[in-house]
């Protein structure tokens, strides 16, 4: 018996991209999804993306570093209102929190950073970044081999799937040729921030994993699908998304930055700064 699973991550509020991924996955026989974190913001569709995944038989949700940032702000992490990147995050968080229900926020707070699943005779370790943290660049495509070896130091699994770095890759944890000892390490890529442009627009990425009860993994298909970037831009404009110009720049050029100087150059920055202060005070009950 075969199972086709759509493994995705890093939606980052890009609802248009997520819809295209789900449509492609279902057209290719996917009946179940695993979400490895960072549904959360930068684009305007965080809440709708979360709810769509809930509807589409997403059986596993992990907490990415952006979801964790919600709760770090809640519990008192330092905020610098003169730092435009802090201001941007607070404004995006404010929009998300105004739409999420309290029950949904509580559910996201309970999402684990890693999860181990048993399928087709395999033990698969799912994580947003690493088993012990969901941020950082230790598993970037050009990271030292030792970093990938370390994944399996403290876990007992046949393979690992992670996200976070916004790049689809396949690695192993052993650079010597010992095929019965190597563990596969796969990265889903990113739904919402691939930075890959084609003639028809931005590309969304996900992993289509086919499992077979007799032989385990039969294929790991790194899928890439186009989506309507003009539609996503129109949506961001319609809802007056904070730092809209930076979001459009990413969708149109494939260039993404949360550089504070770049964000501070937005002509509406003083307005966004004031909104961030109000939200933060409300969050703290001040």
Automatic annotation (TrEMBL):
Residues 4-211 form the Calcineurin-like phosphoesterase domain. InterPro entries: Ap4A_hydrolase (IPR050126), Calcineurin-like_PHP_lpxH (IPR024654), Metallo-depent_PP-like (IPR029052), Pesterase_MJ0912 (IPR011152). It holds the Pfam family Metallophos_2. It comes from the Bacteria. PANTHER family: BLL5683 PROTEIN, METALLOPHOSPHOESTERASE. Belongs to the metallophosphoesterase superfamily. YfcE family. This is Metallophosphatase family protein. It comes from Leuconostoc kimchii.
């Amino acid at each position: 018996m075969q199972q086709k699973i759509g493994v995705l991550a890093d939606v980052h509020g890009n609802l248009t991209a997520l819809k295209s991924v789900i449509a492609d996955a279902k057209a290719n026989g996917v009946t179940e999804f695993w979400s490895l974190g960072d549904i959360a913001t930068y684009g305007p569709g965080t809440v709708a993306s979360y709810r769509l995944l809930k509807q589409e038989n997403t059986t596993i949700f992990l907490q990415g570093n952006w979801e964790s940032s919600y709760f770090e702000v809640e519990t008192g992490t330092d905020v610098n209102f003169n730092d435009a990147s802090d201001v941007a995050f607070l404004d995006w968080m404010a929009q998300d929190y105004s739409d999420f229900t309290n029950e949904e926020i509580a559910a996201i707070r309970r999402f684990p950073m890693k999860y181990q699943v048993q399928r087709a005779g395999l033990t698969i370790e799912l994580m947003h970044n690493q088993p012990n943290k969901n941020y950082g660049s230790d598993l970037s495509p050009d990271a030292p081999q030792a970093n990938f070896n370390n994944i399996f130091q403290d876990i007992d699994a046949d393979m690992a799937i992670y996200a976070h770095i916004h790049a689809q890759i396949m690695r192993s944890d052993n650079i010597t040729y010992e095929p019965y000892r190597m563990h596969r390490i796969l990265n889903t890529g990113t739904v919402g921030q691939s930075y890959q442009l084609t003639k028809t627009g931005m590309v969304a990425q996900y992993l289509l994993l086919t499992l077979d009860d007799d032989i385990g993994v039969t294929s790991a298909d790194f899928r890439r699908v186009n989506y309507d970037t003009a539609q996503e831009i129109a949506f961001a404009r319609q809802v007056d998304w904070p730092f809209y110009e930076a979001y459009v720049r990413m969708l149109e050029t494939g260039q993404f930055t949360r550089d504070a100087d770049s964000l501070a150059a937005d002509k509406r920055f003083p307005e966004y700064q004031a909104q961030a202060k109000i939200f933060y005070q409300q969050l703290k009950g001040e």
